[in-house]
Each structure stands twice: as C-alpha cells, then as structure tokens.
Write a sequence for this structure.
C-alpha cells in the first residue's frame, strides 16, 4: 500500500473511531483527533522527505480498478506539483485540529466533520482521477458549510453560510460541467490525469471544445478560489466560520481549485488558455488591487484577512496568466505558503475573538503588552502577509512578478504596487490597531496563550519560515513539472535561454 | 606579501574557524542573527545576559571584520563569493552569496563598529526599561539585516535584506509601541520605505529580464561587455533602483519618515542614522554603480529627458535634498530633530556625490559620517538622558560645565561634521566637492559649498544654545554626566571622527571603484598600502593632512571659507542668545523651515486621501454593487420567485395529489398524441 | 358477438376501479379512506397486469402482480402504522388537520 493511501485513510479511520466513542467523552474525542492529526503530519513529513525531487514522474503511486466500464479508478500519486501541497495540507490540518480546542459545543460532531474535511482535502490533492479529486473536494466542502452554519459566529452567520454554500456549490457545479464535457469530448472514457495526458498529447482536444471547456473550468474552479468578481462569499464566510474551519478552507481547500487549474486546464487546453488569458489577467487585477483596496477599508480584522487572502490569490492568477515556468512555479510556492499563512492568520484571529470577544480593530489595541506571544505571532503573520522576506510568501510572489514581466509588464507594476504598498498599508494598519498603541483596560484580564495553545502557531510559523529560507526545498521539485506543463500549454514558447541556463551553474 | 601575513594572522587568531574569507563573512553575517535567536529562545528574561549575548556577537563580528579588512581591504586580494542555492525556478536563479571585497569589508567595519558601540551605550541608556532584552533583540536583528545588505552579492538577496532592514527599523522605531506617536512613526517609516521598495523591485525585475541574471559580478561583466544590454529601459531601470535608495536613504520626496523616526530610543536613532538603514541606500548605489555607467537611454514616452542621464537626476535629487534638509535644520529646536535633518542633508550630499560620478567620494563621506554622526546622536542621547528626556535645546544651556565629557566629544563631532580641517569630515566633504567639480557639475559644486556653510551654522547653533550660555530650565540646571557605559562609546567614537581621514581611506575607495575600469580618478593617484602607511607614518600623515590644499585648492579653500562664514554668522546670532533671533529676521520663511516646508501636511492632504479615496470607492463598490446589487439581487429575485410559488403550496395533501395526477394525465395525453 | 370477455373489458373495469380509487384519494378527507382508495388503485393496476398477462400468453405480468401484492402488504403495514402514530399524536386522521408542511 502506498504511504499516500495510508495518509488518506488516517483521517477517515480517526473519524470512525470518534464516531464510535459516545458523545460525553470529550477528552477522548479531542485526544483521538489530535492523535490523528499528528499521525497525518508525520506521514506527510515522511512522504515529503522521501520524495525525490528533480523529475517529472509520479511517486508513491497506487492504482486500483474500481468501475472499469466507465473508467473510474482509484489512482493516487504525488509529483513535484502536489507533494508540497500535501505537506501543507497536513500541517494546516494538524494546526486546525489543535485550534479546535476552543470549540465547546457538540465537540464530537465537530471533530467528526473536521476530520472529514481534512481527509477530503488530502484526498483531493493526491487523487489523479478527476472524479475522485472532485469527490474529495466536495467531501471536504460539505462539512465546511455545516460547521459554519452550526458553530459559526456573528450576526451575519446565516447569511454568510448561505452565501458560501451557494457560491461554492454553483462554482463546483460549473466546474463539474467542464469536467464532464472534458470526459465526453476527449473520448478516452477516463478522467485519469495520467491517461488523459498521454492521449491528449497525441490527439489534442478540438479547438472549439477547448474554447468552451476552459472557461467552465476557469470560472468554476476560479469561484472556489475567489476569483474576482466571484469573491464576495470569501470574507464574510471566513469571518463567520469557526476558527478551524476558516483555517482549513482558506488554507487548504481554496488551493484545490488552483491545483486543478494547473493540473488540468492549463496543460490540456492550450488553445483555451490563449483565448482566455487576457480576461484572466484583467480579473487578477480585480483580486490584487480591488480586494486590496477593499481590505484597506475594513474595520473588522476577519474581513481584512479575508480580503487580503483574496488579494494573494490574485498573485496566483497573475502567475497562471504569465504562462511561464518562473511564474507558475511561483504560483505553486504561493499556494503552499499562503495555505500556511492563511491558516496562521485565521488561527490568530480566532484566538483574538475567543479571548477579547471581538475582532473589531477600533476596539482592540495595545495587545502586545497583554499577550506578548500572540502579539509577536500577529506581527510575524501580518508581516509575512505583506510579503516580508524570510517568510514563505516572499519567494513565491517574487517569482510570479519575475515570471510575468516579459508578457504582462504593466500587470506586474500593478501587482508590485498591490503587494508592496497596498498590502503594506492594510497590514501595518492592522498591526498598529491591534497590537500597538496604549493598552486598553477592557483587555486587562486577557491572557497570553499557554504553552500547549502555542503549538499550532509555532508549527505554522516554523513551516512558514522554513519555506521562506529554503524555497528551493519546494521549487526544485515543482519546477520540472511546471516546465512540462508550460511546454504543453504554450508549445510555441522557446526553451529557457542559454544565458539563463548558464546562470544557474 | 601583505595578504600572506594577514592570512597567517587570521589562521593564528581564529583557529577554530575555517579561514576561508567567505566563511568568515558568513559567520559575521550570522552572528547577530544567532544572538537575536539566542536571546529570544534562551535568555529572554535576563537583562544582563541579553546585553552580553548581543554585544559579544557584535564585537566578535567587528573583530572578524577587521581580520577580513586586513586580508582584502589592505591587500589586493580578489573579491570572492560563495553562493548557495536559494530559489531556482525556470530562468530565475537566485543564490545567496557573500561578496567580500574592498567595499564590503570597509562597510562591515563601519556597521559592526558603530553597532557594537551603540549596543554598549544602550546598556546605560535603556537601563531600567521593562523590555530591555527586546531592545537588544531588535538591535541584533537590525545589525544582521544591514550586514546582509553589505554582503549581498546579488539584487534579490539585497532586496531581501533591504526589506528586513525596513522591518527591523519598524521594530525599533516603534519600540515604545504604547506611545501613539512612536507607533505611528514606525508605521510611517515602514510604508514610506515600501514606496521606495516598489520601485526597487521593478528595477530589479527589469534588469533581470534584460540581462538574465541578478548577480552583481555577472551583471557588471555583462554590462561592461554590452553597455546597451538594458535597451531603452536602461535609465528607467537605474532610476527605479535608485527609488529603493530614495526610501532607505530618505531622499526627497520620500524623506518624510526620517525625522519622525526620532520617536525611537536615541541609540536606535544613532544606529539608523550612522551605520545602518540610511547608509544602506548610498551603499547600494555604490555597489551597483556599474548600472549607471551604461549608455543613457529612455523609452519613447520619456524621450524628452534627452541626454540627461539617470546619474544627473540622482545628483539633482541629492543636492536638492541636501539643501532642503539643511534649511529645515536651521529652524528646528528639538536636539534630535536637528541631527536628523543634518543626516538628511549629509545623505543628500552623498547621493549627490554618486550622481556626480563619485561613488568613492560618497562612500568616503559615508564612512566618516558614520563615525561622527553616531557620536553626535549618542551625545544627544546623553544630554537627553541627563535632562530627564527634555529635547528642546532652548530649555537646555550651560551643559558644558555639567557634562564635560559629553560636551567635549559632542564639540569634536560638530567640528568634524562642519568640516574643520584636519578632522575627518573635512576630507570626505572635500572629496565630494571635488567629485562635483571634476566631473563638470559646477552648480552642484556651488550648492555643496552653500550647504557646507549652512551645516556649520546649524550645528554651531545647536552647540551654542544647548551647551554654552546658562541653563534655561530646571532640568538643565540639574543635569549630570552620564554613566561610563554611555560616555566611553562617545570617547571611542571621537577617535575616528578626528583621525579617520588620516589613513588613506579616499585612495583606498578610489582604487576600488576606478582601477578596474582603467582610469584612476580624483586625487591621490598612487595606492598606499597599510603596511607602508605604518612604516612611514609621520611623513605620510603630513602628506595626507595637507593633500587637499596641495592637490585641489579650490574646493578645499572654498570649503574652509564656507565653514568660517557659517561659524561667524552662528556666533553672531547665538552667542548667549536667550531666544531664537531668526524668525524675526526671516519671517515666514523661517516658519516654513520650522514646519519642514509643510511636506508632511501636503502628503497628508493629497496623496494619502487620494489612495484612501480609491479604497473607499472599491469598498463601496464591493458593498453595494457586488455584495448588494449582484449577490443580494440574485438572492432577492430567487426569493421573489419562491414567494410566488409558495402560494401553490397549500399544505393540503390532496391538492398536491390533484396536481400530481393532472400532471400525469397531461404527460399521458402528450405521449398518446 | 361472443360473451367471452375480451381484453378491453378487463381494461375498462381496471380503469373504472382506478378512477374510483383516485376519486377516493382526492375527495375523501379521512386518511383511512384515502388509504383504501390507494389500495383500490393498486389493485386496478394488478387487474390490468393479469389481464395483459392472460391475453399475451406471457407470465411476466403475473410475476409482477405477485411483487405488487407483496410490496403492497408491506406498505399497508407501514402506512397503517404511520396513520395510527399520527392519530395518537394529533388525535385526528383528517387531512385538513395535517398541514404542517405549509410554511
């Protein structure tokens, strides 16, 4: 059995065990969930460490026939594209399970749903059959809606739940239409990515089909990511969600959409990409600039973080639109980095909400004195959020801007403005409003996180810093796969210039 | 031979470490980081250990820097670098490497030296602060970031540490974050710097896109071989990179953060103003000076610049900043703010030197300035400490007798800054003026002389008002000399302020910048090695001391003349003055100077609201058009449809059955037809 | 004209039975009577199936009838149980009283 399968099974087995234990043994549920999370993290670390970077082949692959007549098979494996994402998903899952300690109501059900979400997220990243990928993504999304509805907070909770459910379901539906159309038009009788790749390399999709299917996938999966103007579910949704849910969704689930776009839409539909690239480039400005500006005006920390997360997604779309190895490698780096960062930010936001009772920045202030650890973590997370070197986001955003310059120079100017200046403004304002300034009497009772509560923050920070200092630990694996994808997405693009090759030595 | 001797000395001195210079450089870079990490993780609760860690690391770094300086600075060892892979993605290859050459070793000495002294001083100054260890974490991080800029061997690594300097300055300026003004100043400094970084990053991207590398050595080589490599964007790229320096070195129009940064503790001001941060901009310009030696080329949209090169613009901005800041300094009353504007003005001087094609002069001035400006700031800190945090010079007075050590060192620093021969400031200022004159910038030369006079004027005003005369407030009357931890750094810093120029620093830098390109430039054509200096000390000192007057008498004499005029006016106006006579003499112009020519007000009235307005519009659009019209509209129309269909839903089982049967009947009917 | 009943006779009877059952379902208010109407409709279908089976010389229809009878028996058990449960809860088996599906 591939280690991937055991990694995938872990959360479901954990959920099963939790389901068996009666509802009043809270401690057992918490311990079981925590143990499951730890086990997932360890397995993911083993997989990441055992992964041999530098090639394009799949590793830890496992294939089992399921319904051969319609070509549905259980097929999992990792290559450079998703190995880092799997690790990121496992880290975030662990941190989310730790953060779920704050949940007090219906603990059993919450852990059950949370583990289902984590299992779904892992499954979506490792599945190579698009049916399973889609299935696992939905499996992760549905508990998300329930968690927001049942354990959510704030007056807007119901509206936010409706909005996020409808948006994401509709987006998923559009995406599913695209996948089915791909299944039908390719005529291969399978949704296996590897098989599709082999066949489509010989016999590409008809141009008209590409032009039709590509926007379905782009808009469908784009909605799941928060592509402007289908973004308005994100900020209120995250503000209403319970902390672990926001961490899982903003951190991990959002990346599935991007992952599918890179895995399927770009390599299989080069004509569609060319056709829709200008539109995508314009929409990504909507994310980078517009959502950044909107973030500047927010007085609620959760809404600010939600909009900032959308702005980061704009960098991903810009990188995708660049259609260059540098840019798309940067996208994958951002995906991993932003997963960690978003989880960290929402964990901190949740901590503030539980302890201070509000995330309204006008009411908060001077918290560095009361909670030095959390305050420092907030400073680090927000600094990482505005692209500070030393954290994982920086190399990703840097590569995206470098990669996009040749084809989209003015967009890079806008992106640099959005990332460095607008990002700086809202993040610094948030730090100034939340942790700086005179201490407020309202929060005198508020305590810092004790050692055990620090764990999720420390894990996420450590990962952020590690990937910030050693981006090559991801990039060397990502790059060959991306190079292949770019080659099939833009067959006319020349291979890297000899000058650049020389520079690498 | 020198190299070998030095090399042997190194192996003897530091047997535990590898003696490869690049390894030593890495070690120097990482020492402050290790100290910061060590304090954070291990000794956070102990003031004594925190200070010890931090100071020990910086002093060690200084000693090692000196070793490197002996190896590279004095000998003619070639620059070395040792890259390790950081980020590789497609055509983008970024390695982190250190460059060890004459320029970086000199700068290492400056940074570690000033930083070490500032840290020793801080033990006294910050005594009793509740966040004492945090302060040393900040100082160590700051030193680390700055060393990273100094040693960086490529643009991306420099940008990386560039940002880290920004964030460490933010940490330190906002050290007393509970004070609103400090927190605001920190934010302002960071964001203003971000504006500069925006341009810097774009410049880096343009250069990479054209040349395919970000490595300095490779770029320099490629640009040397193909001066037109950057195409029509050559000058734009140069200016964009300069934008980074504009932010860090606080050049007009991004100068507004620097005076506000005085909200930080005084040692931080000393560090920022002398050796780190503001020096980073000038250092970077010198490091990438090859970028400005390419052919001037403008894209079609900017063709009206014609033959004006990027360097000309840089020189103009530098001179303008220097003039503006000197004018502002004349009417400030806060002792730290006077020094802040003085820094601004001197930075403008350095940037002007770069713009005139004299990076050697700029670095020369940077080095000497680091010494005496650190001295002045620490002296000011000592005064503030003694006067119970009174910073208004008109509430001081008569401190000369109460704080003799501080007064003496402060006076020496002032004299050096004013450019009194034979103190260090005179020679470096002379080098800057000479660079302007030699490279055909007579206007800038004239401005330089004018600014020199103004510098003397405002510095003497400060000394006359604060130290001489009689005490004008109770606090000043009860002032007392500061503890040893604070006065010793002053004494130590006084030494380079006086004597730094007596070693052939100018020639050393000229050699670094211009021998590679085949033409030796400026005064002092032959390179004098360190060993030779010592062996023939007296003769050479004699030679060096009077060198400017012999070699290029015009700038030397004009500079001295400016000094005398400035001093004369200052003494006339401020000797035993009880209040400032200038506002009466100059009227509204003085008010403008005092209010910094309203730049902050203009920015706050125009640019910030403009950006906020856009944000407000976006937010409005998001709330009402996307969130309201689109989302709520879709929601509303769906709900309306639902309400219409709800009438049908009576809840009566048999009505439903009737509809059901009728439906079936209809289908059957259609099917049978 | 032969007196042997043809297929259409059976079908007419079946249709009559079905209509009567449907009328009962639509018009009566008592759940038990509605339920009897339902049974009537089921048996009308059974009759039609048997008739078709007989006239087409094909046993499939009769097999189907057995299934229907079995399932109908099970359904009656469940349905009556539901009605009894409803009656216990609401003290009524009239459809006018059972409108909680309405918003």
């Amino acid at each position: 059995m591939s280690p991937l399968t055991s990694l995938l099974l872990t959360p479901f087995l954990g959920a099963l065990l939790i389901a068996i234990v009666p509802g009043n043994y809270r401690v057992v549920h918490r311990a079981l969930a925590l143990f499951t999370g730890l086990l997932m993290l360890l397995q993911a670390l083993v997989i990441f460490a055992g992964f041999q970077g530098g090639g394009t082949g799949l590793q830890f692959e496992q294939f089992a026939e399921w319904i051969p007549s319609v070509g549905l098979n259980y097929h999992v494996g990792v290559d450079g594209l998703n190995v880092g994402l799997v690790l990121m998903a496992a880290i975030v899952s662990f941190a989310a399970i730790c953060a779920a300690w704050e949940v007090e109501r219906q603990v059993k059900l919450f852990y059950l749903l949370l583990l289902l979400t984590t299992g779904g997220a892992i499954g979506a990243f490792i599945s190579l059959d698009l049916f399973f990928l889609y299935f696992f993504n939905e499996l992760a999304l549905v508990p998300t809606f329930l968690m927001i509805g049942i354990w959510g907070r704030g007056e807007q909770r119901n509206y936010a739940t409706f909005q996020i459910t409808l948006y994401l379901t509709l987006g998923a539906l559009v995406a599913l239409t695209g996948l089915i159309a791909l299944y039908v038009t390719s005529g291969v009788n399978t949704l296996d990515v590897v098989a599709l790749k082999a066949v489509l390399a010989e016999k590409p999709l008809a141009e008209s089909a590409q032009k039709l299917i590509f926007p379905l996938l782009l808009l469908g999966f784009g909605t799941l990511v928060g592509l402007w103007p289908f973004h308005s579910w994100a900020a209120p949704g995250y503000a209403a969600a319970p902390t672990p849910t926001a961490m899982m969704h903003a951190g991990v689930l959002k990346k599935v959409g991007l992952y599918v776009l890179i895995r399927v839409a770009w390599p299989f539909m080069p004509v569609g990409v060319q056709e829709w690239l200008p539109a995508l480039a314009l929409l990504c400005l909507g994310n980078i600039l517009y959502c950044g500006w909107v973030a500047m005006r927010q007085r609620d920390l959760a809404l600010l973080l939600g909009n900032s997360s959308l702005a980061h997604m704009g960098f991903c779309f810009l990188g995708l639109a660049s259609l260059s190895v540098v840019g798309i490698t940067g996208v994958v780096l951002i995906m991993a980095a932003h997963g960690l960062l978003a989880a960290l930010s929402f964990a901190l936001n949740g901590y503030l909400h539980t302890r201070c009772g509000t995330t309204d920045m006008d009411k908060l202030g001077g918290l560095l004195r009361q909670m030095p650890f959390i305050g420092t973590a907030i400073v680090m997370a927000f600094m990482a959020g505005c692209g500070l070197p030393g954290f994982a986001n920086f190399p990703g955003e840097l590569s995206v801007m470098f990669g996009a310059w040749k084809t989209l120079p003015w967009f890079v100017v806008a992106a640099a403005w959005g990332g460095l200046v607008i990002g700086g403004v809202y993040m610094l304002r948030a730090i100034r409003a939340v942790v700086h300034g005179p201490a407020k009497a309202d929060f005198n009772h508020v305590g810092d996180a004790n050692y055990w509560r620090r764990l999720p923050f420390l894990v996420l920070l450590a990962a952020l810093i590690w990937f910030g200092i050693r981006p090559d630990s991801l990039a060397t694996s990502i790059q060959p796969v991306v190079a292949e994808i770019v080659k099939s997405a833009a067959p006319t693009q020349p291979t890297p210039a000899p000058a650049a090759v020389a520079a690498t030595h | 031979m020198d190299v070998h001797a030095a090399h042997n000395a190194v192996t003897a001195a530091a047997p535990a470490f590898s003696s490869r210079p690049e390894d030593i450089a890495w070690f120097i870079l990482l020492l402050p980081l290790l100290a910061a990490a060590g304090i954070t993780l291990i000794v956070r609760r102990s003031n004594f250990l925190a200070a010890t860690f931090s100071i020990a690391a910086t002093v060690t770094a200084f000693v090692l820097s000196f070793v490197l300086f002996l190896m590279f600075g004095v000998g003619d060892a070639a620059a070395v670098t040792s890259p390790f892979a950081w980020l590789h993605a497609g055509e983008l290859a970024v390695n982190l490497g250190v460059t060890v050459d004459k320029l970086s070793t000199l700068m290492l000495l400056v940074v570690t030296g000033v930083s070490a002294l500032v840290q020793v001083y801080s033990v006294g100054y910050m005594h009793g602060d509740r966040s004492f260890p945090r302060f040393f974490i900040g100082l160590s991080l700051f030193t680390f970031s700055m060393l990273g800029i100094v040693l960086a061997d490529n643009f991306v690594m420099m940008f990386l540490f560039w940002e880290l300097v920004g964030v460490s300055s933010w940490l330190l300026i906002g050290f007393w974050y509970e004070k609103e003004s400090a927190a605001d100043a920190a934010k302002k400094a960071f964001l203003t710097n971000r504006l500069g970084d925006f341009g810097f990053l774009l410049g880096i991207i343009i250069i990479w896109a054209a040349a395919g590398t970000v490595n300095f050595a490779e770029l320099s080589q490629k640009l040397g071989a193909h001066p037109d490599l950057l195409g029509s964007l050559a000058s734009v790229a140069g200016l964009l990179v300069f934008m980074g320096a504009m932010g860090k070195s606080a050049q007009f129009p991004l100068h507004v953060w620097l005076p506000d940064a005085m909200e930080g503790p005084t040692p931080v001001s000393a560090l920022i103003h002398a050796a780190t941060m503001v020096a980073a901009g000038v250092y970077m310009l010198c490091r990438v000076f090859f970028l400005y030696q390419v052919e001037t080329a403008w894209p079609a949209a900017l063709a009206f610049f014609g033959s004006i090169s990027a360097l000309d613009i840089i020189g103009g901005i530098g001179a303008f900043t220097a003039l503006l800041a000197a004018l502002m300094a004349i009417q400030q009353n806060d002792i730290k703010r006077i020094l802040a504007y003085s820094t601004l003005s001197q930075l403008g001087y350095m940037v002007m030197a770069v713009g005139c094609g004299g990076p050697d002069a700029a670095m020369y001035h940077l080095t000497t300035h680091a010494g005496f400006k650190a001295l002045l700031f620490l002296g000011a800190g000592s005064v503030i400490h003694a006067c119970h945090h009174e910073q208004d010079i008109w509430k001081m007075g008569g401190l000369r007798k109460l704080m003799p050590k501080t007064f003496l060192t402060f006076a020496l620093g002032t004299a050096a800054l004013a450019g009194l021969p034979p103190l260090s400031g005179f020679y470096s200022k002379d080098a800057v003026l000479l660079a302007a004159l030699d490279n055909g910038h007579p206007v800038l030369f004239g401005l330089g002389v004018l600014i020199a006079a103004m510098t003397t004027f405002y510095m003497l005003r400060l000394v006359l008002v604060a130290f001489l005369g009689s005490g004008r407030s109770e606090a000043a009357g009860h002032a007392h000399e500061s503890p040893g931890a604070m006065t010793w750094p002053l004494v130590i810093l006084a030494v380079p302020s006086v004597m730094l120029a007596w070693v052939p620093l100018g020639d050393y830098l000229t050699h670094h910048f211009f021998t590679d390109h085949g033409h030796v430039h400026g005064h002092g054509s032959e390179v004098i090695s360190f060993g030779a200096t010592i062996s023939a000390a007296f003769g050479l000192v004699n030679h060096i001391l009077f060198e400017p007057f012999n070699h290029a008498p015009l700038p030397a004499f004009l500079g001295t003349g400016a000094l005398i005029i400035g001093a004369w006016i200052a003494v006339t106006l401020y000797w035993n003055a009880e209040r400032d006579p200038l506002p009466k003499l100059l009227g509204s112009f003085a008010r403008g100077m005092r209010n910094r020519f309203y730049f902050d007000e203009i920015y706050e009235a125009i640019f910030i609201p403009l950006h906020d307005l856009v944000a407000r519009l976006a937010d409005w659009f998001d709330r009402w058009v996307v969130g309201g019209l689109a989302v709520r509209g879709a929601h509303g129309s769906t709900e309306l449809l639902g309400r219409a269909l709800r009438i049908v839903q009576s809840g009566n089982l048999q009505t439903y059955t009737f509809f059901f049967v009728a439906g079936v009947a209809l289908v059957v009917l259609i099917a049978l037809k | 004209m032969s007196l042997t009943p043809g297929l259409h006779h059976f079908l007419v009877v079946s249709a009559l039975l079905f209509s009567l059952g449907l009328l009962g379902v639509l018009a009566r208010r008592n759940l038990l009577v509605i339920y009897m109407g339902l049974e009537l409709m089921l048996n009308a279908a059974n009759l039609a199936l048997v008739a078709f089976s007989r006239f087409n010389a094909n046993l499939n229809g009769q097999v189907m009838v057995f299934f229907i009878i079995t399932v109908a028996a099970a359904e009656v058990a469940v349905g009556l149980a539901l009605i009894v449960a409803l009656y216990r809860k609401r003290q009524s088996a009239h459809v006018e009283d059972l409108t909680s599906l309405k918003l």
